[in-house]
Amino acid sequence: MGSRAQWSFVLLCALLSVLIASLNGTATESFGHTHHLGNGTSPGRREGASGISCNMFRGSWVYDQSYPLYDSSTCPILDPEFDCQRYGRPDKSYLKYRWKPDACELPRFNGLDLLRRWKGKKIMFVGDSISINQWQSLVCMLHAAVPDAKTTYKKNDTLSTITFTDYGVSVMLYHSTYLVDIVEERIGRVLRLDSIQSGAAWLGVDVLVFNTWHWWTHKGKSQPWDYVRDGDQVLKDMDRLVAFNKGLTTWAKWVDANINPAATKVFFQGISPTHSKGPEWGDKNAKNCYGQTQPVNGSTYPGGPVPAQGVVTSVLGAMSKPVYLLDITLLSQLRRDAHPSAYSGDHPGMDCSHWCLAGLPDTWNQILYAKLL
Ligand SMILES: *[C@@H]1O[C@H](CO)[C@@H](O)[C@H](O)[C@H]1NC(C)=O
Ligand SMILES: *[C@@H]1O[C@H](CO)[C@@H](O)[C@H](O)[C@H]1NC(C)=O
Ligand SMILES: *[C@@H]1O[C@H](CO)[C@@H](O)[C@H](O)[C@H]1NC(C)=O
């Protein structure tokens, strides 16, 4: 079954379950109007099923007094880089926005429900620091739902694992900047567009959320390789979008060859945008994201799509195994106000790439949650 067919089937099941629930007289609530955390213990209330039936990535940001979803000071792991309030960000309204898809409501995130549904399972984010951002967001959100639950934390250079031991749910981060390998060879560090050694560590996981892009653009001192290998050719450099296409295709082949869709759900976290040029959002005076306190109004971004999005859609479109694209680019582009900017701990300079927590990645996880229902 192709990925579209697969997800249509999931959607159909979701719709059927809503229908059955309403026939039983236990209709799902309209989530847009409930601002408490749901409970999720009563079997008739499949909260969120109503949110699945629409394009969740088209919509706009609305002010919502009940946000944020958690108090960042209570989160058990939060890198200084994302902890904007602790590091002096003076404004707070960026915390107060809820994503409103045009055609439906996003189900309210319910951490307890997620832990119960995914009891005994492993959820792993694989990718660069944008994955760290989303991983820490999910840990904060789950912890806020069950603040007294026991957790364990294990960490080494590549793998960090938080386990909610009462539920047996592990939320993991596998650090990989390119997904494909960088190998030390005689000539120096080689980015190998055709090889994924680390894939072995991703097997046996129940939910995989992949991401890579930002490092593909890095040049000079912040480029962690000396050569790029493309098949038989070893090059000093190549067009970065072409390289990204080849690397992502290697990843796609790995997924097609190694993933059993009955056991593992695979997501690709779409391109996370940066806000380093005001003219992109129609503000000639803004040098970057610093001082932005409001989202872009409405549902369109003046700067238009990011070229790397085209690579993602074409590579994912050619896969044989179902991969769900968390297509977060547009909704994130609208959040020029959601970056750490100068309030990012020891991070040097202006950070207009990562995102404050609490903040935007919570919405990415809300959508992930909706897709996991
Ligand atoms: C959740 O719902 C169950 C059954 O409806 C109830 O027994 C329980 O007290 C509720 N828990 C909370 C925290 O509201
Ligand atoms: C990190 O920990 C994992 C799981 O315990 C292990 O498989 C892996 O080899 C470790 N990696 C490093 C670099 O130590
Ligand atoms: C945002 O757009 C909506 C609809 O176009 C409009 O009603 C509203 O006044 C705008 N808000 C701001 C702050 O510009």
Provide keyphrases for this structure.
25% helix; alpha/beta; binds 2-acetamido-2-deoxy-beta-D-glucopyranose; four-stranded mixed sheet; 13 strands; globular
Short description:
The chain is an alpha/beta fold.
How are the elements arranged and paired?
Layout lengths: L2 H21 L35 E5 L33 E5 L9 H7 L4 E6 L1 H17 L5 E5 L3 E6 L4 E7 L5 E5 L2 E5 L14 E4 L16 E4 L2 E3 L4 H19 L6 E5 L37 H11 L5 E4 L2 H5 L26 H13 L1
Parallel strand pairs: 3-6, 3-9, 8-10, 9-12, 12-13
Antiparallel strand pairs: 1-2, 4-5, 5-6, 7-8, 10-11
Helix pairs in contact: 2-3, 3-7, 4-5
The site of one 2-acetamido-2-deoxy-beta-D-glucopyranose has 2 residues, from loops.
Task: Explain this structure.
The protein is of the alpha/beta class. The chain has one domain. The chain has helices at 3-23, 111-117, 129-145, 240-258, 307-317, 329-333, 360-372, and strands at 59-63, 97-101, 122-127, 151-155, 159-164, 169-175, 181-185, 188-192, 207-210, 227-230, 233-235, 265-269, 323-326. The protein binds 2-acetamido-2-deoxy-beta-D-glucopyranose (3 copies). Residues 39, 41-42 line the site of one 2-acetamido-2-deoxy-beta-D-glucopyranose.
